[in-house]
Amino acid sequence: MFVGGLGLLLLRMGIGCADDRCKGEPPSFQLNVSLPDADVRTQLRALSIELHVDGRRLRRTYTMDAAQTADGVVSLAIELSPPPSQASMVELSVAGWSAADPEASGAALLGSAHDSFGLSLDGCNLYELRLANSEPGEDGGMTDARTDDAEIADVDTARDAGVDAGQDVPAIDVDVGVSDAGPGEDATFPDASEPDGSPLPDVGVLDATVIDAASPDVPEVDDASLPDVVSGEDATVSDTGPDAGPDAGGPVPFAYAPSRFDPGAYVPTAELDVTCDLTFDTSGMSPRFTDCSGAEVAAVVLEDPARVGAVLFPLLSLDVAAGATLRLVGDRTVIFGVYGDASILGHIDASAAGGVPGAGAGDPEYCGGGGNSGAGADGSRAIGAGGSGGGGGALGSPGGAGGRAGARAGGAGGAARLQHWASTPPLSGCPGGSGGDGDGSRAGASGAGGVGGGGVQVSVAGSFTLHGRVTASGEGGSGGFPATSGSNNDNPSGGGGAGGGGSGGVVTIEADRLLVHGGAIILANGGGGGKGGSSAEGGGASPADSGDSGSKTADDVALGGEGLGDGGNGGPGAAATNAAADGHDAESDWVGGGGGGGGGTGCITLWHRQACVIEDGAGFGPQPSLLSNCF
């Protein structure tokens, strides 16, 4: 059965529009409510729908008869008026009643449902709920089924509007999906968008003034058996009935098993609000740091004997303000376990920079030695020639090989570790190899390999909202130094080989509800390889150019080192769909050093349990591995 006259709504929820025409529709969605219980299908006479969206709380009741519910599904076409200002998460509650007027004497609550989803600013939204039978003693979350769910008695015996703590909200007779016959036959509360006398019927429009979010409402009591729609609005009055949600903004239970830690083993106490630039070092026995307010925030060390460990922050909430950066460095990767919501307007930065790797970069399982190493191999020193370039580091994609110098091949690029993604999320990026010293050059004349991006995991029990950036890009390899003496065929001398670029690291985000706004960025780009050093005839005392570090602002390729001199240029790092490039060979057989190979990309993993919206204009480098389809 389909209720509503808004016309055909083409569907989009998680997998993209089947037809682009829906993108030109005003913000709306189709809601399919399944009725698995036969008794509910025959008794259902009204559905009450309540939304929390864009800072507003909206409600409408729809009437129906047994013939309309016989197929076991009620479909409603719902338009939001006025429309929301941006794509957002929507909290949705539905209650089914045995009477067209839920406030009427004898009206029984037949079932209820609650969920959340991402709303795009078009008509391409679809959502489905299953109306579950209500148990005695539990209310419906929107309109109370009983009056005994608060410690303080209700003022009168009329059912209130879902706000307890001893004060009834005046009943609001909202439209029920039929045409207005004229003045006097509409709701007792005027419509915001369709006043009486309008030639247009009221069909599925939720008017913003039905419930005014800006008015001084009584705080909500967490009296429903359903999760909280908005955290932090619970009254201090204790509940007497069954309760599935936290009171007074407490920790939210995880409805899924997060990666790499057991949420039941920790009790969160801190709210991390980053309003300034902070650096957290995960090294040491008891890592901790002081936040922007001067409060100490301590981490729990999670060790794994076979690999680099992690530190866990059990948090009630995580907020990074616009313009603020939380930089993550040190020996271990970082996990933020958020027992609530997380909002990132600023920057979480686990990228490598200035020779300092991101948090936990260089994990031995992924970057250790051997023929299948994630780290780039070092270049070689050639007798009578320059040193060859180091290979680029790897993680999600392979690194480029270093450039040749003389008879010596450059170091091999690191090998991608894709085979481990399905079972164990990768932890951190891998470094590029160092270049080889040139014959006749100073000791240590080769360029150092760039270090890798780190590992950061954000696991959120509630909603994760990203307006800003999360990055774990690798560093560029250093350029080789020139030879210290002249070079010719009789007395050859060569420049040092360049270092390979470091690979991108790992960003793992998992949440019950996930929203990535247009303009938000998640990056794990590889760094470019450095330029090989030149002979003394073509260079001075300074090293050749280093490769660019992986971008922290776009999915652009990091360029390899270039410039004057007879050393080979560095290979660009990997980004987006661009693979890491090999370093260039030296320009002659005996004087220049080889260029460093570019670093590979890292790994981005996104997962959501209930709802996900990724807006157009969001940037990823590389494209994320979606363990649950967000698009």
Can you lay out the helices and strands and say which pair or pack?
Layout lengths: L1 E2 L24 E7 L3 H6 L2 E8 L2 E8 L2 H4 L3 E9 L6 E10 L11 E11 L5 E6 L1 E2 L71 E3 L62 E5 L3 E4 L6 E3 L5 E3 L1 E5 L2 E14 L4 E5 L3 E6 L3 E3 L2 E3 L14 H4 L87 E12 L2 E3 L34 E11 L4 E3 L79 E12 L4 E3 L3 E2 L5
Mean of residue pLDDT values: 75
Strand content: 25-35%
Main structural class: mainly beta
Q: What proportion of the residues is helical, as a percent range?
A: under 10%
What does this molecule look like?
The structure is a single chain. With 631 residues, the protein is mainly beta. 2% of the residues lie in helices and 26% in strands. It has helices at 38-43, 66-69, 364-367; strands at residues 2-3, 28-34, 46-53, 56-63, 73-81, 88-97, 109-119, 125-130, 132-133, 205-207, 270-274, 278-281, 288-290, 296-298, 300-304, 307-320, 325-329, 333-338, 342-344, 347-349, 455-466, 469-471, 506-516, 521-523, 603-614, 619-621, 625-626. The strands form 5 sheets. Strands 11, 15, 16, 18, 19, 21, 23, 25 and 27 form a 9-stranded mixed beta sheet that branches. The longest helix is centred in the first third of the chain and has 6 residues, at 38-43.
Question: What's this model, at a glance?
Answer:
With 631 residues, the protein is mainly β. The protein has helices spanning 38-43, 66-69, 364-367, and strands at residues 2-3, 28-34, 46-53, 56-63, 73-81, 88-97, 109-119, 125-130, 132-133, 205-207, 270-274, 278-281, 288-290, 296-298, 300-304, 307-320, 325-329, 333-338, 342-344, 347-349, 455-466, 469-471, 506-516, 521-523, 603-614, 619-621, 625-626.
